[in-house]
Amino acid sequence: TVQVEGNEYYGESSITAWIQNDDLSVNTLYILFKYNLTDADVPSGVESMSASLVNPWTVKITVKEKEMLGYVDYDGAYLYFDRNGIASLRTKEILEGVPYIEGLEFDASEVEMGSVLPVSDDSIFKKIMDVSNFLTKYSLDPDRLVCEGEGIALYFGSVEVLLGEENYENRLAQVEPILEKLRENYPDTAGTLHLENYDTDSESVRFVPSE
Questions:
Q1: Global confidence as pTM
Q2: CA–CA separation, 89 and 110 (whole Å)
Q3: pLDDT, position 150
Q4: Mean pLDDT confidence for 3-16
Q5: Do 127 and 197 have their domain in common?
Q6: Which among 43, 112, 129, 135 would be 20 to 30 A from 87, CA to CA?
Q7: Which residues is 64 bridged to in the sheet?
Q8: Which range marks the domain in which residue 12 is found?
Q9: Among residues 36, 65, 94, which one ends one of the domains?
Q10: Is 93 left (phi over 0), alpha (psi -120 to 50) or beta?
Q11: What φ, ψ does residue 194 adopt, rounded to 5°?
Q12: Are residues 36 and 89 in the same domain?
């Protein structure tokens, strides 16, 4: 018998089927050896799996799932990828706390689970990770995160925030104070906040209302 703990994305039956897809898995000691002492294959959305013996007939598998960086539309479902851009999980469910990434262009016919998404420039994944980390740091919750060329844009209601390709911490630190001023002085005004060239020496920030 196999017991599973630590799983959130994967169902217990999926993990059990993975374990049992090995003729020798009827032997509990073999499972202990395989998942504790060898570099055993694990599902693409799993960081690691370890095994412990509950009794001579029962093994407990402890699953550590990957932290997903984002997800995109793919083949009628959602495709989640990790911080390295590796396609890790395909599901029709939306996982809480994982951002939907718009505008990430890749060749859907070339996607392989367990491999990096086939984008033209994989530095985009580092940019998404940096932006995500600083969004958390500054308690920002955009409605949308969009890859635009090699840069990133965020949407807060009807305000588009262009972040460009670098210097994300300094730029994101400005967002909440600026949005607050916009709400005070230009309530309900749609437009674009240009931070793509902002750095610590910048004296002003440009907001362009939509026509």
A1: 0.83
A2: 16
A3: 87
A4: 95
A5: yes
A6: 135
A7: 48
A8: 2-65
A9: 65
A10: beta
A11: -95, 100
A12: no
